[in-house]
Hints:
The protein is α/β, with parallel strands linked by helices. The chain has helices spanning 2-28, 40-54, 99-106, 126-132, 158-176, 188-201, 224-231, 234-240, 259-269, 271-287, 290-303, 311-323, 326-329, 373-376, 402-418, 438-447, 450-456, 462-467, and strands at residues 66-69, 72-83, 87-95, 110-114, 137-143, 180-184, 208-212, 243-244, 255-257, 309-310, 333-335, 341-343, 353-359, 385-390.
Amino acid sequence: MLYQLYESQRALMEPFSEIANAASKAFHNPLNPFGQLPFSQRLSASYALMHRLGKDYEKPAFGITQVDVDGTSVAIHERVEIDKPFCQLLRFKRFSDDQATLAKLKGQPSVLVVAPLSGHYATLLRDTVQTMLKDHKVYITDWKNARNVPLTEGEFHLDDYVNYVQEFIRHLQVKYGNCHVMSVCQPTVPVLAATSLMASRGEPTPLTVTMMGGPIDARKSPTAVNNLAMNKSYEWFENNVIFRVPPNYPGAGRHVYPGFMQHTGFVAMNPDRHAKSHYDFFLDLVKGDDVHAEQHRKFYDEYNAVLDMDASYYLETIQTVFQDFKLVNGTWDVRNPQGRSERVRPQDITTTALLSVEGELDDISGSGQTEAVHGLCPGVPKALHKHFEAQGAGHYGIFSGKRWRDVVYPVVKEFILAHRGQTASAAIPATTSKAAPAKKVAAQSAAKTPTQAATQRVSKPVSQAVAKTSAPIKTSWVKK
């Protein structure tokens, strides 16, 4: 019922928002007689603020069309590599006419950026992607708004998230020989699970996994977000924040955690900061400071664009990560696409280099929560562990903005380069044509670094793993 009321309120406000926008333009136009009235600038600014507070925010575009690589402009083409019911794997393909630049691009490592599915779209990581494109082949998980996914596609579970990540990793492994994975915030947990399951099966695991500001162990330095999830029961969330999608969307009838409720929670964490930001926007418009006003628009166009999450996925995440702590307690079982349960065992990871990144002032994932990954992976040699804390950075600062570009990214870039393993152009073979002499193989294995050995260790061919389906597992979850 609440979702329907919200939609009615939004539909009611939309015409008033557009009228406010038209009035703002009228009072701002110097050629219009209204623009010559006293206080016209203040009236224009007031109507502009009313428009932005009342408008509906759609999913933004990444809008990355080119990047600068050592002084050479490189064109970017965004395309869908894999299209799943609840997610697309996007690739940002780079093009250049300069042969030297092209040769350099081909030799750079491939990185899968796993974006969070926690209310915002993957475009929240636009700055992350744009920065990394200078030195990496970049792919990103673009999660779909659950209200736009028909019920015929079934439910989406946390297990499906883990299975999606594994499929995407295998896709890059087949294409490039192996890959690097970066997870930001919420996906640190399912990414670690995916890597663990691949290691337990004897599959090749990513060369590196970078985990940034995520709740690997939410018991450490709990924040307001953690406390809400830990202090309320599973049933409370089930009965108070789960609603059906209204009939005017393709996913009508699907049980979801609505994006507008998530957005309300975001704002409620720092209401004074948001109020001040909107007031500063008003003052910038009055002063004619178009630069700062445009920065405000860009930030809130992204911040206010939210998506719905499937109820099963949301509730399972609450229970697994914040209530039962199944990852750190070693009790998490994930159902594979064939319906069989597999225990998540991070201790089985032995050759993937691990980098954890935390922000000193992070108020979403507290200090030590991400760093806990190192204690869960004792099988990884000490030389392949690294932790970095970004001084003065909040949650968003570790993956977006000046601190990300100047402080965090150089650490991530260096870590990936230090553990590249085999060349990016080499592909993992599906079959072996000829066996090498035993003594020669032993000598070559002894000479390899742990990361290089990980790339070569293929007890189950990747091509065989990719061939397996990853259809969502349907259940009969029912909400009152």
